[in-house]
């Protein structure tokens, strides 16, 4: 992230998201400000608060995609949550602090996987030695001294070559194992028994907090047990390599790094924030806890310490990106204190025919390219004429205007309906080249589009 200038961030976002330059500029500046904060003197560093953002615009215009691509681009811990899932403390539902706990959990798991990948080769070598120990156990005399039953050595595996020494036998076994000649032989493997008693907790609030350490507590209280399973060597190698990789990972270091990443570069994308912005004069019915959620959210956005099962996590420098359509309410309907914690507001543009055309053709993951790649797996070559894509974009705009405006998501519905027959017949069809022209688009979509009632159900 330290190498990315705001202009470079915008260029990277342009590869996947069409238009919305104001929003891209805002998130690029917010991200660069994090790097700038880490360069200032330490006594001032903690005083610089993140500039949280509210993205305003209808669904399907790229709000979530901007935040998600931003996190991937900078390798920042990222979590997307819906504000409508949270309730005020005292009501049934999730408490707002759980969004930070979820972010920490996701980051720990992600770093754990990376660390396991880093030690994969070492773990594979250890697993190989364990398999060789199973195939060629210690001599019976040594086993009896240690009080073990021992199993008969598999000397019949290495009869060829005439090497009678144990080390030579082991090396021959190793070569056979690596060559895959022993894959179908069965071995007995002791695996950890992960089953534990089911404990259900009934509570109306703080569900996450109450169950925070129950699993860890029970795993520490109960003796670790293992069960013996008979499996093929190829499966045993994978299982043991995975087990050894977990043992090689320093979880304390992983947790420390995860908490540091969350605190310094975490991003929480708070979707549907307009759903908790109730107008004054309410106070009964389903809206009763809306303002309460905002008040619970306030200390989190301002900066507070959240208790997680990995330890306390501060939210002072987590970047909050909120979004909402704000059809019936305005950002000014949020409580004043919360408005003050989201100083940057960006209105995203609605999408029309020109934008739909670009979305279908320009991004690296363009929808047209996705369907071409999917059908190529069946040996079918689909060619989209430029005029056909223009016609499809026009129909998407018309349907959005006639029914509900769901932005670029309308293109997924149209493309699926347009190519339904080809997708169904592709495995059996002898015709291996299909040209999508304007006549084909009209034939498939015009009748549905012109019937408004029908288009509401199908498109």
General description of the model:
The protein folds into 3 domains: 6-114 and 256-347, 3-Layer(aba) Sandwich (Rossmann fold); 120-248, no CATH class; 353-454, Helicase, Ruva Protein, domain 3. The chain is built from 21 helices and 11 strands. The protein has helices spanning 6-14, 21-39, 42-45, 63-74, 98-118, 120-135, 140-145, 166-178, 207-210, 214-221, 233-248, 251-265, 290-302, 336-340, 353-361, 367-376, 386-402, 409-418, 420-425, 438-450, 452-458; strands at 53-56, 78-82, 186-192, 226-232, 267-271, 305-308, 311-314, 319-324, 344-347, 381-384, 433-436. The strands form 4 sheets. It has a 5-stranded parallel sheet, sandwiched between helices. It has a two-stranded antiparallel ribbon with strand order 3-4. Strands 6-7 form a two-stranded antiparallel ribbon. A hairpin with a 2-residue loop joins strand 6 (305-308) and strand 7. Helix 17 packs across helix 18. The longest helix has 21 residues, at 98-118. The model is unreliable at 141-153, 158-164 and 198-206 (pLDDT under 50).
Write the layout of secondary structure elements.
Layout: H1 6-14, H2 21-39, H3 42-45, E1 53-56, H4 63-74, E2 78-82, H5 98-118, H6 120-135, H7 140-145, H8 166-178, E3 186-192, H9 207-210, H10 214-221, E4 226-232, H11 233-248, H12 251-265, E5 267-271, H13 290-302, E6 305-308, E7 311-314, E8 319-324, H14 336-340, E9 344-347, H15 353-361, H16 367-376, E10 381-384, H17 386-402, H18 409-418, H19 420-425, E11 433-436, H20 438-450, H21 452-458
Parallel strand pairs: 1-8, 1-9, 2-5, 5-8, 10-11
Antiparallel strand pairs: 3-4, 6-7
Helix pairs in contact: 1-2, 2-4, 5-11, 5-12, 6-11, 15-17, 17-18, 17-20
């Amino acid at each position: 992230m330290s190498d990315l200038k705001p202009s470079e961030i915008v260029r990277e976002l342009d590869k996947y998201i069409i238009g919305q330059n104001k929003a891209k500029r805002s998130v690029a500046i917010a991200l660069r400000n994090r790097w700038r904060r880490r360069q200032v003197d330490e006594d001032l560093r903690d005083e610089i608060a993140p500039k949280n953002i509210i993205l305003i615009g209808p669904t399907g215009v790229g709000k979530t995609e901007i935040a998600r691509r931003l996190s991937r681009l900078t390798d920042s811990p990222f979590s997307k949550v819906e504000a409508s899932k949270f309730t005020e403390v005292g009501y049934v539902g999730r408490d707002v602090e759980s969004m930070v706990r979820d972010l920490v959990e996701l980051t720990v798991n992600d770093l754990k996987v990376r660390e396991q990948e880093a030690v994969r080769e070492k773990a594979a070598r250890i697993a190989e030695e364990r398999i060789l120990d199973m195939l060629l156990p210690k001599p019976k005399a040594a086993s009896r001294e240690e009080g073990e039953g021992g199993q008969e050595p598999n000397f019949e595996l290495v009869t060829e070559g005439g090497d009678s020494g144990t080390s030579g036998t082991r090396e021959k076994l190793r070569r056979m194992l690596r060559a895959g000649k022993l894959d179908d032989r069965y071995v007995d493997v002791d695996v950890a028994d992960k089953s534990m008693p089911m404990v259900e907790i009934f509570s109306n609030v703080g569900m996450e907090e109450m169950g925070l350490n129950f699993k860890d507590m029970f795993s520490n209280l109960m003796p670790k047990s293992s069960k013996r399973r008979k499996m093929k060597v190829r499966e045993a190698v994978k299982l043991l390599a995975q087990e050894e990789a977990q043992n090689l990972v320093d979880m304390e270091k992983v947790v420390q790094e995860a908490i540091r990443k969350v605190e310094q570069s975490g991003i929480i994308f708070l979707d549907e924030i307009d759903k908790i912005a109730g107008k004054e004069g309410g106070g009964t019915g389903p809206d009763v806890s809306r303002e309460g959620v905002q008040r619970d959210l306030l200390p989190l956005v301002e900066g507070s310490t959240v208790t997680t099962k990995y330890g306390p996590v501060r939210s002072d420098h987590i970047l909050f990106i909120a979004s909402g359509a704000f059809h019936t309410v305005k950002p000014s309907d949020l409580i004043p204190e919360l408005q003050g914690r989201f100083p940057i507001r960006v209105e995203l543009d609605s999408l029309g025919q020109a934008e739909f055309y670009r979305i279908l053709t320009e991004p690296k993951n363009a929808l047209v390219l996705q369907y071409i790649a999917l059908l190529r797996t069946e040996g079918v070559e689909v060619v989209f004429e430029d005029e056909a894509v223009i016609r499809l974009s026009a129909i998407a705009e018309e349907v959005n205007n006639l029914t509900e405006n769901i932005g670029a998501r309308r293109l997924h519905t149209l493309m699926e309906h347009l190519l339904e027959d080809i997708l169904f017949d592709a495995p059996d069809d002898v015709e291996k080249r299909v040209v999508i022209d304007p006549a084909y688009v009209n034939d498939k979509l015009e009748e549905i589009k012109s019937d408004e009632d029908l288009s509401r159900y199908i498109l």
